[in-house]
Design brief:
Length: 483
């Protein structure tokens, strides 16, 4: 059996090789165009330029046709804006919508912005109602309204239904591709109905059982159809206690359930118990990926998705909020140091040692914060175990403070042959690591209880506290205990 990691590596290498080939084609295209431009005096200049241009574009189009939409999205995200737009214009209308579904939000917005309205309508017209719902936030309302007019009445109703739910709810992620059967049907009848279809919806591992009023009754796994007698009734084979989601359930809770129970698909029901849709693993995986990327950016103080090659002004403005916060906190930390100028002037070694206390405290606190943010995302942290978590992290901080405090204390003594300085260093390290553990737990929990993303700027806030208090503790102890 082929190792999954090896398959992933091979796929990654193939994708990177495709990117290199496209970059070479783009470089070749620019080089030849430059050479043709230098020969403008030639009477056949326009003809030569047209032929060369067309030849290279055809090469690009052929290469792009061989790639999966997700791979094309990777290529677009890895290219600067000019090259990206050139590639985007070579993608056929019938594949453009699929590519828009795969690219990041920032790149998607940039691509949609350069498309004229008729072209955008053609691209979106190739998508079904489920995919349109995913792109609805990025598409101008008038364009979405025009595209929706090409849908059937059923698909238009579905599009309006899913768009009515917030992006973090099951109702927004669910699909309308649902196969239903009745309890009274027999296996042979269900199999006959399935064979009469052209295809099955993606990620179909079971059928959903409903009654005459479309009330959800249970789940019929496909394997049950294949392994049982054709005359057995659906009611005798269906599972009556499957994992079921309400349309207003949090998507994060659904994602955890999919991971915990290894689900491929699950029914989505409304408040009255009627089956209204199906949640699939691909939609859940997309949601998890987007959330993880957003959390990673939020931890660093970045707001929303940012294109790697976004304009300088846009990128700079996106970073201003937390940079301004960080600047304010840095001024506060500097004033803490200013309170002890006399102490530092008497013992210059303090100036060289205090960044160690603050830096180790910040790193330790960030580890705790990352652990808490992960626990909140997975639903592992509850009100009843919060105190236990805080005590555990304080215990870790105490142990680390004793071990590494003693280490840096000996280091300070070896550098300056000053016993009291070594003891102050060790004590400051111990206290700051305890503080870092407490703050590392408190910041994400507080943000969570306030209804904010626990990752939002937590690293910036933590660094401010561990730096400021680290300086204060170290210099304060030095002022009191050093001569």
């Amino acid at each position: 059996m082929t190792d999954a990691a090896a398959v992933l590596r091979e796929s990654r290498h193939r994708l990177e090789d495709s990117l290199r080939q496209i970059v070479k084609l783009l470089d070749k295209h620019r080089l030849v165009e430059t050479m043709v431009d230098r020969d403008r005096a030639s009477p056949r200049h326009d003809l030569i330029e047209s032929l060369v241009h067309r030849q290279h574009l055809v090469e690009l189009q052929l290469k792009l046709r061989s790639l999966h939409p997700a791979d094309i999205a990777y290529v677009l995200e890895a290219l600067p804006p000019d090259d990206r737009l050139l590639i985007w214009r070579q993608i056929q209308d019938d594949r453009g919508g699929e590519v828009l579904l795969e690219v990041s939000d920032a790149v998607r917005d940039a691509l949609i912005e350069v498309l004229e309205r008729p072209a955008l309508v053609r691209v979106l017209g190739q998508l079904d109602a489920d995919d349109l719902a995913e792109l609805a936030e990025a598409v101008p309302e008038e364009v979405l309204a025009e595209v929706s007019q090409t849908l059937t009445a059923r698909d238009r109703d579905w599009l309006q239904t899913t768009m009515a739910y917030p992006e973090d709810r099951v109702g927004h992620l669910m699909s309308q591709d649902v196969l239903t059967v009745r309890e009274s049907q027999r296996v042979e009848q269900v199999l006959w109905l399935l064979r009469g279809r052209d295809d099955l919806p993606p990620n179909t591992d079971s059928l959903f059982v409903v009654d005459a009023r479309h009330q959800f009754r249970g789940v019929l796994p496909l394997r049950a159809l294949l392994l049982n007698d054709p005359q057995v009734r659906v009611a005798d084979l269906m599972l009556t206690d499957p994992v079921v989601f309400g349309v207003r359930d949090a998507a994060a809770d659904a994602a955890r359930a999919f991971e915990r129970y290894d689900l491929v698909s699950a029914p989505a029901i409304n408040e009255r118990g009627k089956l209204v849709g199906r949640l699939t693993v691909d939609a859940v995986m997309d949601y998890i990926r987007e959330e993880s990327e957003e959390d990673a950016l939020n931890m660093a103080g970045l707001r929303g998705d940012e294109d790697l090659f976004a304009p300088i002004w846009h990128s700079a403005r996106n970073r201003w909020l937390w940079l301004s916060v960080n600047l304010c906190t840095a001024f506060i930390a500097s004033r803490v140091i200013g309170l002890f100028e006399e102490t530092i002037s008497q013992l210059v070694a303090l100036a060289t040692l205090m960044p160690i206390v603050a830096g180790i405290g910040g790193n330790s606190g960030n580890q705790t914060t990352a652990l808490v943010v992960r626990g909140l995302a997975l639903g592992e942290i509850r009100p009843e175990n919060t105190w236990h978590l805080a005590c555990k992290e304080l215990g870790v901080g105490l142990l680390n403070g004793l071990v590494w405090g003693a280490t840096v204390g000996l280091f300070a003594y070896a550098l300056y042959w000053n016993g009291p300085l070594g003891l102050v260093m060790a004590a400051a390290m111990l206290l700051n690591l305890l503080l870092a553990a407490l703050v590392g737990v408190a910041i994400p929990l507080t943000l969570h209880r306030l209804g904010r993303d626990p990752a939002l700027g937590s690293s910036v806030l933590l660094t401010f506290i561990t730096d400021g208090m680290g300086f204060f503790i170290f210099l304060g102890l030095a002022t009191v205990f050093l001569p």
